[in-house]
Amino acid sequence: MSSPLFDVWEAASASPYQPTVGKNSQFLIGSVLLFAAFILAGVFGLNRSFVNLSLLGVPASLAFGFGAVYMICAVGVYV
Questions:
Q1: 60 is a domain residue
Q2: What is the pTM of this model?
Q3: 2 has a pLDDT exceeding 80
């Protein structure tokens, strides 16, 4: 007698998880995203307007968020 959960477990063992960004490139991608966030936030800080909020502010905050997570994972602190 087999359970459905065991069948799913066996099927998943045949195809292991492959991340989109490999472990060896997390530091580079994190560094690039944090640098881009720093530049975008600096330009946004110099010229603030409602239009620049969507063009510079949102991408800067997203780049900082993802860059911070990639850097945390790259140096060995897992969230």
A1: yes
A2: 0.75
A3: no
